[in-house]
Amino acid sequence: MMLLIPGFASAGSIFEHQNTNVPAGQTVNDVYVIGGDAEVFGKVTGAVVVINGSLHLGNTAHIKGVVVVIGGQVIQDPGAVVMDDVYDISLDNATQNSLLIGGGLVLGLWVLQLAGSLLMVLIPVLIRIIGRQKIGTFIDRYQGNAMGRLLYTGFLSGLIITAVSALLLITIIGIPILILVLLALIGAVAVGFTVLSYRIGEMVHVQAQRSEWINVLIGAAIITAFVNIPFVGWIVLLLVTLISFGIFTTWIAGKRKKNYSPAIKGE
């Protein structure tokens, strides 16, 4: 059933959820139709918007504003005048597939981001709980290390690792070694991230005494929150990775120095 706009609707705006007709000789400000078709034979001084329906502009139609049709078609008879732009967004199969694919990608990225955030919080806590004694000693060893020194050491280590990885990548034999190196780096970053999380969590002072894994949980949550900030998060993630490299490199250097010292004494 087509709704016919009466004469007293002149100079007003139309908001309808059904088929609508603006007859010849009538003037309205704007036409908004949702879930129905629209026919315009009169004059519209503003915009015409039709959602989930089609628009028919008769030969006497005169539209001064923009025309937007979503989910339908625009049929313009000869003589119809549209003084602004016409946007016809058809929800055909191709468009629907594109929207589904785009929505799926956005949802997938959000799920990956959520899963990554949970892992960034849970892995350091599990490392602290499972390796309680060893990680505790490891954390105590780096309480006094300056962040700037660890960052500088991590930066140099990152450059060396990148160069070595590039050399291994160009050889067939080096690819399995590169995989082992990457796995070792992931472990190093995880342990370094645990140490850094503990140090940050320890800075959050409360009156009650807390367990060490609680400090790790608080620190990891703070770092994860900053990592999820657009643009800034990438910088924070890079800094955390470099500091973790610095902690791991310092530990390796300390182990080598410790093993080298008895050898010198034995000579």
UniProtKB/TrEMBL annotation:
Domain of life, per lineage: Bacteria
Keywords for the protein's UniProt record, in alphabetical order: Membrane, Transmembrane, Transmembrane helix
Residues passing through the membrane, by range: 107-130, 150-173, 179-201, 213-229, 235-254
Descriptive protein name: Polymer-forming cytoskeletal protein
